[in-house]
Amino acid sequence: DVDGRFLLANVAVGRIMGAKSPRDLLGKNDFDFHPKELATLYHEDEQAVIRSGKPLLAREEECRDPAGNLMHLQTTKIPLRDATGKVTGLVGIGRDMTQRVAAARELDGAVQESREVIQAVLAGESDRRIAMSGKAGNLLLLAQSVNELIDSVSTTVAETVGVVGRAVEGDLTSRMSVDDKSGDFKALAASVNSMIQAMMDV
Q1: pLDDT digits over 146-195, tens only?
Q2: Strand partners, 74
Q3: 3-state secondary structure of 12
Q4: Sign of the Cα pseudo-torsion (3, 7, 13, 19, in order)
Q5: What is Dmax (Cα atoms) for the chain?
Q6: Helix (H, G, I), strand (E, B), or coil: what is residue 3?
Q7: SS3 per residue for 111-152
Q8: Residue 61's pLDDT is what?
Q9: In what helix (H) or strand (E) does residue 94 lie, and over which residues does it extend?
Q10: Angle, nearest 10°, between helix axes 137-168 and 98-122?
Q11: Strand, coil or helix: what is 198?
Q12: Do residues 163 and 175 make contact, with C-beta atoms less than 8 angstroms apart?
């Protein structure tokens, strides 16, 4: 209602608020379940919606579950009107985004780690790879893919340096393997081989 008291609640809200059942929320407000500072923030949001008549849509905010664990909620608050159009309360919808936020942060960390490892390899740390321990699912696939890419690049670069180096020293019989490569790596190998062949034909 306009005073922030629960008139209706579902099981999910009851769980987030720490109530044994949705019935335990009825007639109570945020101050009965949250610390004063957090409850005041929620109350001010609700009063702003009631005064303005404008909904608060899909805002992400932090709170604590009954055990004290940090939660991330996506909150929507929509004004509820009577037959005359007067705002008599609001409907609140909260989606638990905790796992989604954690997954996004893990992905950000994995991308940053990948970037750092690739930069280190390009700077000369040819043995540097992304650690596989502690990763699972998509993060493990990302680590494997980046490591495979680094292995492929490193192998091709080493092969190129070796073949070209021998050609410079006068050994024009060495060639890069082509059939086991694809894309730009295959084009590079073919180009090096053509260059060495041209040196032989001079």
Answers
A1: 998 888 888 888 888 888 888 888 888 899 999 888 888 888 889 988 98
A2: 60, 95
A3: helix
A4: positive
A5: 95
A6: coil
A7: HHHHHHHHHHHHCCCCCCCCCCCCCCHHHHHHHHHHHHHHHH
A8: 86
A9: strand 87-96
A10: 10
A11: helix
A12: yes
The confidence score (pLDDT) of residue 58 equals 92
Other C-beta atoms lying within 10 Å of the C-beta of residue 30: 20
Instruction: Yes or no: say if 143 and 110 are a contact pair by the CB < 8 Å rule.
Output: yes
Burial class (CB in 10 A: 0-12, 13-18, 19+), 72: middle
Top pLDDT among 55 and 122 is at 55
Q: What pLDDT, in 10s, does the model give residues 102-157? A: 888 988 999 899 989 988 887 878 888 999 988 888 888 889 999 988 888 888 88
Contact (CB, 8 A) for 42 and 56:
no
- State CA 44 to chain mean position distance: 31
Return the pLDDT at 195: 87
User: Cα–Cα distances in Å, from 31 out to 5, 42, 138?
Assistant: 10, 9, 41
Distance CA 189, CA 88 (A): 74
Query: Cα 185 vs. chain centroid, distance in angstroms?
Result: 31
pTM of the model: 0.59
Could you tell me if 172 and 163 are in contact, meaning their C-beta atoms sit under 8 angstroms apart?
Answer: no
